[in-house]
Amino acid sequence: MENYYQKVMNGTYQNHVLPFLWQKGESKEIIEEYLIKMKESDIHEVCLESRPHPEFCEEGWWNDLAFIIEKCKELDMKIWLLDDSHFPTGYANGWIKEKYPQYRKTVLTHRIFDIIGPQKQASIYLKNMFDPTEIFYDAVWIQDNEVKHLSYTKDEDTIYFDAPKGHSQICVIFTSRQSGFRDEYINMVDKNSCNVLIQAVYEPHYEHFKEEFGKTILGFFSDEPGFMNEKGINADSIIGKENMVLPWSKELERRLKDAFKEDYITLLPLLWMEHKDAACVRHTYMDIATTLYKECFDENLGTWCREHGVMHIGHVIEDKDSHARLGVGAGHYFRALAGQDMAGVDIVINQLVPGMDEGYHSYGRGKWDIEFFNYVLAKLGSSLAHIDPVKKGRCMAEVFGAFGWHEGLKEMKWIADHFLVRGVNYFVPHAFSQAEFPDIDCPPHFYAHGYNPQFRFFGSLMRYLNQMGSLLSEGTTHPTAAILYHADGEWCGNYMPIQKVAKELSRHQIDFDFVPVDIFTDKTRYHTVLDEVGLHVNGITYACFIMPYQEYIGKALNEFLNQTKNYQYPVYVIAQLPAYMYDCKEPVMELNHIHVVKLDELCEKLHKENLYDIKTETYEPWLRFYHYTKNGEEYYMFVNEHPKLNIQTKIPGLKGRQIDFYTNESKAFDETLSLPSYGSIIIVEGQSDKTYMDKHSYKVLDGTWKISYASSKQYPIFTDEKEITESRDVSKTLYPYKCGTFRYEKDFICEEELDDALLYIEDAYETVQVFLDQKDLGYRITPPYQFPIEALSEGIHHLAIEVTNTLDKEIHDMFSLTETQEPSGIIGTVEIRK
Fold first, then answer.
1. What pLDDT is attached to residue 233?
2. Can you say whether the dihedral through the CA atoms of 263, 268, 269, 271 is positive or negative?
């Protein structure tokens, strides 16, 4: 009887890939060609995106969609729909602008007026020549850090008041319909406004194709919705920012009034100004705003979808810490996706760089915090998938998009493993573009009308994602630690970003989930229990709780921390204990039982207390680890994330079967872990009787090689033959600016008969396929470039090695402007090993 992992290896697995297929009004012939190419690449679901389609939700769109549905039925494929006429979600196909201007975004804004008193009958003219939508809300008097309601009289355009002695300020508060950024978008804190998106996009699709909902059409995808109260180009849309306009609605106003009672008006200016009570005010506002985002937008859409037999998926903007902020963000990652059936994240524009896990990486329009993308992004998604019952363990990542043409299958495989080893199990590759080649819109594109020379190998990567996604779904994960999500702390005062703790744990192979304060304030949703065994959230048990430093905490978290002493449950606070409460006037409870540790001492403490799953004999900062249980089988995934360095270490006590699901190679594992650069394996725990012996060099194939070239359109017809006597970058002199496949050929003599040999290529750029005596030995898209040879007879043999590079040598794009190019061809030795 086959074990589950054996069934997956032998081709029994589910679909876990749903790439974007951009719709720009192309012909039905092109659409059919692309669907067939996707099916041939082991892709069984597709996410259709208007990019933009000229007749979205009009006759042309319905005709194209009807055609796609029928073709997908023929090909046994399923469909997802990106839920707006263009990205990001929230435009509502223009209905806010054209049909429902009363539901446009409303924002709360203010202006500060300085006055030197005493001054009787001072006045402030209220009209704003730059914003005719401004409506006067109220005014507050500020002096010596004291705030009071301003006593004033008002005519149509002016307020009149008496100013006290000395320097004082008047904070005049307005509502406005102009934020200066995506003003035609829906208001995320107004359910009536969010319903316009449902009316404009969701309901018309149901009316046209309701018989396909839940059958051919699986669901809708929301792409990067957010508050959109400002663009926030400096990633500084943090509550408390001076002069930032704030999301507003009647319901938000009502809830704030309920929270602040008679102090409501005098507390509003504290949303922008520094004050001893500002932390409480700002947290209250953000708590209400993010809860309304959850209710009005995400849960609203999710409920509609499930009532109509489909699912709701997607992601928000997470980068530059937007996941916990306003602006393009949604304020609170876990609430923003609360209504979705999968957790979701995305990686774009070279936000990951193999071998770089800290510091900042320039991308042409700014810098990316590489530490965040390495240690937080994917784990945000998988953490939500683990703790939220609605998600059922499902986490999607939109991957590969807008990296530029330098991104080939080697980097894509590295990115795929980066997400898999962090618990992501569904993938939305970005993207198939049907536009004329070369399309400047966010390359690379996978097929590119046949011009992408690596596309013939693309299906193997999709198969790998389907296999691994199937293996790591519908089971149980085993994180050791729960790390407190920092949003609530950031809203109030000083705090430590979660990436600091996540990096330390990851580099020591201690797995974790991020958990929000909501697991304590909404225990019913998250099934939160603390007992003698540990902290349980949605059935997952965390052996310890880690809180990065934050100046303020809330009452619910304070109560949990206090309760842990009753169960001797280990809690570690980084740097120092919290000082204040953001939601009550009470002091922080006595927390002397809590372990306060320095960040660089944390993992040593955890190891000392046996709070870990596995432990390597040597410190391996580039080794990533994930433990998963499914159908009674224990899987341990290991990934070497360094592109140049190999990993050699021992994991005491771990034995079983080592499997590379990309190559379908399997061998015994007995504590010794050997992973080359780009290496990724699954170890199935248990006993194994098959051993493996490392092979050593038998013959170096040096001397003269014949080399020829074929473009993606010419392949497999090779021309322009040359000779080389040493390995080098063939793009430099032999084939400058050429993209395609380079074929190396030579005859060599084997002096003896060999069984179970290996062809080894030291380094190549970047996809390698090998033919020995006209027999195809297979291909590799990442190192190690080694190919098993079952038997090699004594005598003369003919070897052909085909190396396919990336399109960046020929096609230059804006996303590659800050990225170095790799060489082309074979760089290093070619050997026979035995």
1. 74
2. positive
Structure tokens at 255: 């809830």
Calculate the dihedral angle through the C-alpha atoms of 148, 154, 160, 161, rounding to the nearest 10 degrees: -30
Tokens representing 196 are: 């316009």
Residues in the chain with pLDDT values less than 50: none
**First-residue to last-residue Cα distance in the chain:** 34
d(CA 171, CA 270): 10
Closest CA relative to residue 611, chosen from 565, 544, 546, 547? 544
CA 278/CA 269 separation, integer angstroms: 9
| Contact yes or no for 617/652 (Cβ under 8 A) | yes
Q: For residue range 705-722, what is the model confidence (pLDDT) as tens digits?
A: 999 999 999 999 999 999
**How many Cβ atoms are within 10 Å of 691's Cβ, its own excluded?**
8
Each as own residue / partner, the long-range contacts of residues 627-632 (CB below 8 Å, 24 or more positions apart, any chain) are 627/477, 627/478, 627/511, 628/471, 628/472, 628/475, 628/476, 628/477, 628/478, 629/475, 629/476, 629/477, 629/478, 630/4, 630/471, 630/472, 630/473, 630/474, 630/475, 630/476, 631/3, 631/4, 631/475
CA atoms within 13 A on the CB side of 347: 32
| Nearest one of 391, 358, 355 to 375, comparing CA atoms | 358
Structure tokens at 30: 């092109």
Provide the pLDDT for residue 623: 98
- The answer to whether 198 and 93 have CB atoms below 8 angstroms apart is no
- Can you read off the two tokens belonging to residue 185? 């978008």
Looking at the DSSP bridge assignments, the partners of residue 685 are: 656
In this prediction, residue 689 carries a pLDDT of: 58
3-state secondary structure at position 265 = helix
Strands of the 595-597 sheet, one edge to the other: 512-515, 481-484, 544-547, 571-574, 595-597
**Rounded distance between C-alpha atoms, residue 262 and residue 52, angstroms:** 49
H or E element that contains 279: helix 278-292
d(CA 258, CA 270): 17
Alpha-carbon span 416 to 413, nearest angstrom? 5
Q: By three-state DSSP, how is residue 700 classified?
A: strand
The distance of Cα 482 from the centroid of its chain, to the nearest Å, equals 20
Give CA angle at 205 (202, 210), nearest 5°: 110
Place of tokens 């012909």: 27
Pairing of β 825-826 and β 764-765: antiparallel
The structure tokens 């000082």 sit at 579
* pTM, rounded to two decimals: 0.96
Helix (H, G, I), strand (E, B) or coil at 666: strand
Q: Provide the pLDDT for residue 691.
A: 54
What are the residues whose beta carbons fall under 8 Å from the beta carbon of 252, sequence distance 6 or more? Answer: 189, 288, 289, 292
Count the helix, strand and coil residues of the chain and give each as a percent rounded to the nearest 5.
Answer: 30, 30, 40
* Integer Cα distance of 505 and 621 in angstroms: 10
- Residues, the chain: 834
Q: Which of 566, 589, 568, 563 is nearest to 577 (CA)?
A: 589
Write out the two tokens for 411: 């980097």
Closest-CA residue to 834 (of 771, 751, 774, 778): 751
| CB within 8 Å of 663: residues ≥ 6 apart | 778, 780
Max CA pair span of the chain: 108
Q: Which of 385, 411, 548 is nearest to 482 (CA)?
A: 548
SS3 track for 373-422? HHHHHHHHHHHHHHHCHHHCCCEEEEEEECCCCCCCHHHHHHHHHHHHCC
